[in-house]
Structures are given as C-alpha cells and as structure tokens.
Design a protein that fits this description.
The protein is an alpha+beta fold. It has a single domain, classed as Gcn5-related N-acetyltransferase (GNAT) (Aminopeptidase, 3-Layer(aba) Sandwich). The chain contains 5 helices and 9 strands, in the order βααβββαβαβαβββ. It has helices at about 15-20, 25-30, 75-85, 105-110, 120-125; strands at about 1-5, 35-40, 45-50, 55-65, 90-95, 115-120, 130, 135, 140-145.
Length: about 150
C-alpha cells in the first residue's frame, strides 16, 4: 500500500471525487488550490484533497473510497497519513460534512470533535437536494482534530 501526492491531472480522478462531493463546480472551487493524495493498494482505493485555510488550519475538502472497498479501513489509513504528514506544520485539521449517519460517526471514531455548523450550506450551494443515509443534508457540520 502506498500513498502518493497527485500534482498533475487531478481532474482525471473526477469520478472518485464526485463520490464525496456531488457537484463538479463545487470541487472546482478547491481542487487547484488543494493538495491531492491517492492511496494505492493494487489499484486506487481512496483519494483525499486537503487545503490550507490559513491560521494554521488544514481542511479535508474531499475524502472518497471506491465503493467496493469502503469499510475496509482505507479512509482511516488516509486520515492517519494526513495527520502524520501535517503534524507540526499545522495546528488543526478540520472537515466539513453533512449530518449523515454514514460520515459523522466515522470522523468521530477518527478523533474529530464537533466545532461549528454553517446553516443551510447544502441547500444554499447545491443545485439539487443531497440525501445521504436517508437524511436530507442541509447544514455543513465542521469537526476538528488537533495536530501536534
């Protein structure tokens, strides 16, 4: 298993990126300024895009695993890599997500804690309703994890 940075042709991973962020123009807002990593384990399994948000804050903008390889620990390995890679360089790792029963428990198990929310983020910024785990996503919930 290897995790490597993708520096060129990031858009070639658009199908995987769209698993975590369903609207391509939203991905376009952070893809060029973000650092992208891919986890390869006999083929690409997981992708992650992180951005520098200033004030020593790093944000996970996109974290997606190929559906047939979900729940096998690949996303957790990617988060562990990000934490190790950026500890000492940033103070805080944050992630914004919807109030989904599929994603919130995952991030909490990875050590993230609730920080704040942005009301109506999904309903105001996406052209169509986003439903995940049977829940209509409305607010963006931010979670963070201290980096040492």
């Amino acid at each position: 298993m290897t995790i490597t940075e993708v520096k060129e042709n990031k858009k070639s991973y658009i199908e995987l990126l769209l698993l975590a962020d369903e609207q391509e123009d939203m991905i376009d807002k952070y893809l060029d300024r973000g650092t992208m990593f891919v986890l390869d384990d006999d083929g690409i399994k997981t992708i992650c895009v992180v951005t520098d948000e200033g004030s020593s804050v790093l944000e996970i903008k996109n974290l997606a695993t190929v559906p047939e390889f979900q729940r096998q620990g690949y996303a957790r390995k990617m988060i562990d890599f990000i934490v190790k890679e950026y500890s000492g360089k940033y103070k805080l790792l944050q992630v914004g997500t919807g109030e989904s029963p599929l994603t919130l428990p995952f991030y909490e198990k990875c050590g993230f804690k609730f920080s704040h929310r942005i009301k109506n983020f999904f309903t105001d910024n996406y052209r169509h309703p986003i439903i995940e785990g049977g829940i209509l996503l409305e607010d963006m919930v931010y979670l963070d994890k201290k980096l040492t």
